[in-house]
Amino acid sequence: MFNKAIYASTLLSAFAVAAPAPQVPGYTDADFPDVSVTEATGAPATTFGPDSQINAILTTPGSAPPRRSSVLTGATSHGPFSGTATTTGAEQAPTTLGTAIPPLPPNPTATYYNPNGKLQDPAPIPYQPNGGAGTNGTEPRYMVNSDFDYESITLGLYQEWIELDLFNNGLAVFSEDDFLEAGLTAEDRSYIAFMAQQESGHATLLTNMLGESAPPQCTYDYPFRTVREFIDFNQKLTRWGESGVWGFLAHLDSREVGNLLSQSIATEARQQMSFRQMLGLHPMPVWFETGIPQSWQWTYLAPYISSCPENTTRLAWQNFPALHVANNPNPNRFSPNDTAAWEYVGNRTSDPARSDIPADESCVNVNTTGYSCGPAIARNRSEPLTFPGRQVNLTWDAPGQAVGPNNSYVTSTAAKLPQFVAWVSQLNLTYTPLVTTGNNSGYTYQPAGEVYEGDPAVNGTTFIALTDEDVFLTPFNLSMINPHVVALGLYQAG
Ligand SMILES: *[C@@H]1O[C@H](CO)[C@@H](O)[C@H](O)[C@H]1NC(C)=O
Ligand SMILES: *[C@@H]1O[C@H](CO)[C@@H](O)[C@H](O)[C@H]1NC(C)=O
Ligand SMILES: *[C@@H]1O[C@H](CO)[C@@H](O)[C@H](O)[C@H]1NC(C)=O
Ligand SMILES: *[C@@H]1O[C@H](CO)[C@@H](O)[C@H](O)[C@H]1NC(C)=O
Ligand SMILES: *[C@@H]1O[C@H](CO)[C@@H](O)[C@H](O)[C@H]1NC(C)=O
Ligand SMILES: *[C@@H]1O[C@H](CO)[C@@H](O)[C@H](O)[C@H]1NC(C)=O
Ligand SMILES: *[C@@H]1O[C@H](CO)[C@@H](O)[C@H](O)[C@H]1NC(C)=O
Ligand SMILES: *[C@@H]1O[C@H](CO)[C@@H](O)[C@H](O)[C@H]1NC(C)=O
Ligand SMILES: *[C@@H]1O[C@H](CO)[C@@H](O)[C@H](O)[C@H]1NC(C)=O
Ligand SMILES: *[C@@H]1O[C@H](CO)[C@@H](O)[C@H](O)[C@H]1NC(C)=O
Ligand SMILES: *[C@@H]1O[C@H](CO)[C@@H](O)[C@H](O)[C@H]1NC(C)=O
Ligand SMILES: *[C@@H]1O[C@H](CO)[C@@H](O)[C@H](O)[C@H]1NC(C)=O
C-alpha cells in the first residue's frame, strides 16, 4: 500500500547483491581497483545511543536579520474574489515609446575569441584573467537597478509569497493519513514544511532588494482537492516560477541582484524536482531547464491570486489569454492514453489533473515497475505521458477577461490570427502548424525535434503558446515573441 516501505526494502536488497560486470553495455575496462570490501551482514541497529562524546564548544546562532514574514501567517482565507477592483490594468510607464522592439545586428564589441587557450589581455593581478563584470573592485550594491529589474524582482516576490502560503496550505488542509494514502510520510510533510520556510527567506531577500514598495502577501484561490492534486499543482507552479527567473536572470541590470537571485532559484529548482518525485514522475526528463518571459510567468500565476491588500504594488507585465489543452495526459493514470478530455479539476491553465479516477485505472498504488507513479526518487513510465506526433487539441479564450488579484488585470494580445503553436522547452523554441477547427479551437501535433542528439526537446511540464508568426528566436531574445502571442498554456509532456 505505502510506497515508502517498498522503496526502502528494494534499496537494502540492492546493496546486498553485487551484480557481475559489465553493468553498463559498451563501457569496458571498468575493473574496480584490486581491493575487496565485504559489506557487514547481520541484524541492523535497533537501539541508538548513547554515542561517543567528541570535542566541541557551546555555540548560539547569533543575531540574524529578521524575516519579513513568519512562516505561518496566521489566519488565512482562500477562494475566489467577489468584489469590484478599485483600479484595473497593468502598471504603465509615463511614456511608452513603441509597439515592437526592432531587431539589431550583433553587438559590435562582442568579438572575443580565443583560438589558442592563451590569455589574450593583460591580467589585473596574478591568477585573475582580464574581464568579467563587477570584478574591478566596485562595491556591490544589492538593489534593483532599473524598471526592468524592479518589475522582474517584484514578479518574483509575488511568486515567493504564493509558494509560502501554498506549501503551508496543503499541509494544513490534508491530514497525515491523506498524505500516507498518496504514499507520502510524516517526513515528507516536514520536507514540504521546510520548503515553506525557504520561501519566507526568499521573500525577505527579494523584499530587501526592492525596498519599501515591495508587495506583501496576497490571498489565493487554489484548484486542488486531494494530496495528489496539491502535489501536481505545486509541480506546475514551481515549474513556471523557476522558468520565469531563468528567463530574465541574465537580462538583469544589477548583477548583484542576479547573483543572489540565482542562489534562491537553485533552491526553487530543487523544490520543483522534489514535487515531481512526489508525483512519481521522472525527476528531470530534460537536459536543460527552460526560461520564459516575465509576462508568461505572470499569465500563469495571476489566475491563482484572488486579492491583494490595498495599495499593493502592481505589475507592468502582460496577461495573455488562456490556451487550454483539452487532452493533457493525467499523470495519475498508468495508461495516460486513456485520459478523458478535460480531465482537470478546473479550467485555469495550470489546474491539476483529476486524481479521483477509478482505482483500477490509477498508478498511485501500483507496484509494477514501469507502471507505478507512487512517490520515488525516479520512475520509469512504460507508457509515456505523451510522445512526438501526438495530437494536441486546443481551445483558447478571447482577450479582455479580468484576471489576477481583485480581477484587476485584463488579458490582452497584440497578435493577429493564430497560425502556430510555439513549444518552449529546454534550449528550444519549436513551432508546429495550428489547424483551426473553429474561431477558438484547433489542434496540432507534438514535435519530435531534439536539443542535441538523444535529447528530445519536448518533455516535462512544457510551455506552449499560440502565435501568429513563427519568428526565429533563441533563449536570450525569446521575449520578442510576446507581440506574437495569442494565448498561453501548459502541456504535461512527461
Ligand atoms: C568597474 O566596473 C564597473 C562595471 O562592472 C564600471 O561601471 C566601472 O566604471 C568600473 N570602474 C573603473 C574604475 O574602471
Ligand atoms: C520523456 O522522459 C521520459 C523519462 O525519461 C521518457 O520515458 C519519455 O519517453 C520522454 N519523452 C519523450 C518525448 O522523449
Ligand atoms: C482588493 O481587494 C481587497 C480585499 O477586498 C481590498 O482590500 C483591496 O483594496 C482591493 N485592491 C484593489 C486594487 O482593488
Ligand atoms: C493607500 O495609499 C493611499 C494614498 O497614498 C493612502 O491614503 C492610504 O492610507 C493607503 N492605504 C493603506 C492601507 O496603506
Ligand atoms: C482531438 O480532436 C480530434 C478531432 O480533431 C478528435 O478526433 C480526438 O478524439 C480529440 N482527442 C481528444 C483526446 O479529445
Ligand atoms: C498510445 O497511443 C499511441 C498512438 O496511437 C500508440 O502508438 C501507443 O501504442 C499507445 N500506447 C499504448 C500503451 O497503447
Ligand atoms: C473546461 O472547459 C471545457 C470546454 O469548455 C468543458 O468541456 C469542461 O467541462 C470545463 N471543465 C471544468 C472543470 O469546468
Ligand atoms: C504492493 O506491495 C505491497 C508490499 O510489498 C503489498 O502489501 C501490496 O499489496 C502490493 N499492492 C499491489 C496492488 O500489488
Ligand atoms: C527504465 O527506462 C530506461 C530507458 O528509458 C531503460 O533503459 C531501463 O531498462 C528501464 N528500467 C527499468 C527497471 O525498467
Ligand atoms: C466565428 O466568428 C465569426 C465572426 O466573429 C462569427 O460570425 C461566427 O459565428 C463565429 N463562428 C463560431 C462557430 O462561433
Ligand atoms: C534546439 O536547440 C539547440 C541549441 O540551440 C539547437 O542546436 C537545435 O538545433 C535545436 N533543435 C531544434 C529541433 O530546433
Ligand atoms: C534572435 O536571436 C537569433 C540568434 O540567436 C537571431 O538569429 C534572430 O534573428 C533573433 N530574432 C530576432 C527577432 O531578433
TrEMBL record:
| Highest rank taxon of the organism | Eukaryota
Q: Which residues form the signal peptide?
A: 1-26
Return the annotated region ranges for Disordered: 41-138
Q: Which keywords label this protein?
A: Signal
Where in the sequence does UniProt note compositional bias of the Polar residues kind?
A: 49-62, 83-96
| InterPro entries the record matches | Rds1
Q: What is this protein called?
A: Stress response protein Rds1
